[in-house]
Amino acid sequence: MARLTEHLTFLYGAAAAERWAPVFTERIENFARAHPELARRPRALATSPAEAWLITYGDQITREDEAPLATLARFLDRWLAPAFSGVHLLPIYPYSSDDGFSVIDYRAVDPRLGGWDHVRALAERYALMLDAVINHASQESAWFQGFLRCEEPYRRYFLVPPEDWDLSRVVRPRTTPLLTEFQTACGPKRVWTTFSADQVDLNYREPEVLLEVLELLLFYAAHGARRLRLDAVGFVWKEPGTTCLNLPQTHEVVRLFRTALDAAAPEVALVTETNVPHAENVAYFGSGEDEAQLVYNFALPPLVLHAFARGDARALARWAAELELPGPKAAFLNFLASHDGIGLRPVEGILPPEEVAFLVERTLAHGGEVSYRDTPAGPAPYELNTTWYDALNPPGTPEALGVRRLLASHAIMLALAGLPAVYVHALFGTPNWRKGYEQSGEKRKLNRRKFREAEVEAWLTDPGSRPRRILDGLKARLTLRAGHPAFHPAAPQRVLDLGAGVFAVERGAEGERALVAVNVTGQPQPLVLETEGWRDARTGAPAGRARVLEPYADLWLTRDEA
């Protein structure tokens, strides 16, 4: 495979590429022969307006004497299908910290969740996204234990930078030490630990590590994954004297993964998770054909939050008006809430520092927390740790108003070009879990509470409960989206100027168009639209030219031309 040789030459040089390219090629071809059904599927990002994702932990909902993945499947079947067609399972592997993101065994399902049979059963009914936590591994992993014993090949699996490496420009996502000293059979080693001492960075400067990770991705594809989320992928390659973030070699690693999957499992799409400034983030699309098919739209959550916090959508609208895709086989993964916090780096250069400071102060006033990272100028805010409901709503907000704000914010996300993903806690309107934070000292616990099936059933069987009203509202909007081709993830979009208090976007092209307008304020907003031929998507009635958009209301119009 000529392209594999090109990737390996870029990363390791011609001599190493000559040695390793046949090995990589053999592993990929063996996989394709073992899984011909995957190799025959089309090389495309097959999406439609009906594709929508739930982001959840495998043990988000539990009951006694049942594997949590089976409980989750029943919840999906009963309450979410068919509005949600896909499920993103956050790490399902045995782990030692960070709620799954410090992986002990990449090829096993945590027995506390179930087994691979439960994963495959989910994959038979829903599109499945699995996490590939490929920047680092747990201290307790067999790989790192082999490193501590100085065993081959594991003694080279983790990065121990030479003493003369210039690390002065390294970009940090945390305030924890970059290097952690471990006692090994070969003596003390200072090992690279980007995120924590229990999350030890893999050494991609060794071809064996890259091959090992590639085989993991193929393994996940064989077990039903149709999307692979490359966690923290921007950090995987390190070079002295650089930022060690989003380096050219990192992009080449993603290209190599894309080449291999296009050959062996072309239906499987890569999803890059890079919580960095917007221009760096979208660079992971590459040409639109050679890197990730999907990129997390990280600037969207803080900009939507800012619009509702200020009652002013202009910053959001300016940014959205400039969004571009490199081609029809690429799409944004749009989201507002996730298992992590609301990242602030993505709005560097989009929101001025004083507006970022405003979001920080507001989050603290709403009962949230803020995580920081080290910079040359000192600690800087990195992410807001809060549930989406509490981020939007001040303490004491009447519940009906809080639900309206949450649904209006999601209407913006659902209207934009891309694939929508809803985190389970936004689905329920969960408040900040202060008890979990206070018990653990981990700020992200505010947004990671787990539930018993009985309490979820009690919420959702009560039509007046907050979770049920939110779920019904989201499903209704997902149905509107799914019902019109103008909301195809790659369909054109045009942001409209309807005043500071309204975010409005027109989707589609001549013949099939849709328009969504959202009031981001607590005041009625007068609208004047050129609406000849347009109909209200909810009622089917002709749309009037002048109307008033009530506080936190969203208007959905469609137009089908012969």
Automatic annotation (TrEMBL):
<feature type="binding site">
    <location>
        <position position="98"/>
    </location>
    <ligand>
        <name>substrate</name>
    </ligand>
</feature>
<keyword id="KW-0808">Transferase</keyword>
<dbReference type="InterPro" id="IPR033746">
    <property type="entry name" value="GGa_phosphorylase"/>
</dbReference>
<dbReference type="GO" id="GO:0005975">
    <property type="term" value="P:carbohydrate metabolic process"/>
</dbReference>
<dbReference type="InterPro" id="IPR017853">
    <property type="entry name" value="GH"/>
</dbReference>
<dbReference type="InterPro" id="IPR016377">
    <property type="entry name" value="Sucrose_GGa_phosphorylase-rel"/>
</dbReference>
<dbReference type="InterPro" id="IPR045857">
    <property type="entry name" value="O16G_dom_2"/>
</dbReference>
<feature type="binding site">
    <location>
        <position position="136"/>
    </location>
    <ligand>
        <name>substrate</name>
    </ligand>
</feature>
<dbReference type="Pfam" id="PF00128">
    <property type="entry name" value="Alpha-amylase"/>
</dbReference>
<feature type="binding site">
    <location>
        <begin position="339"/>
        <end position="340"/>
    </location>
    <ligand>
        <name>substrate</name>
    </ligand>
</feature>
<feature type="binding site">
    <location>
        <position position="444"/>
    </location>
    <ligand>
        <name>substrate</name>
    </ligand>
</feature>
<protein>
    <submittedName>
        <fullName>Alpha amylase catalytic region</fullName>
    </submittedName>
</protein>
<keyword id="KW-0328">Glycosyltransferase</keyword>
<dbReference type="GO" id="GO:0016757">
    <property type="term" value="F:glycosyltransferase activity"/>
</dbReference>
<dbReference type="InterPro" id="IPR006047">
    <property type="entry name" value="GH13_cat_dom"/>
</dbReference>
<feature type="binding site">
    <location>
        <begin position="229"/>
        <end position="231"/>
    </location>
    <ligand>
        <name>substrate</name>
    </ligand>
</feature>
<feature type="domain" description="Glycosyl hydrolase family 13 catalytic">
    <location>
        <begin position="64"/>
        <end position="452"/>
    </location>
</feature>
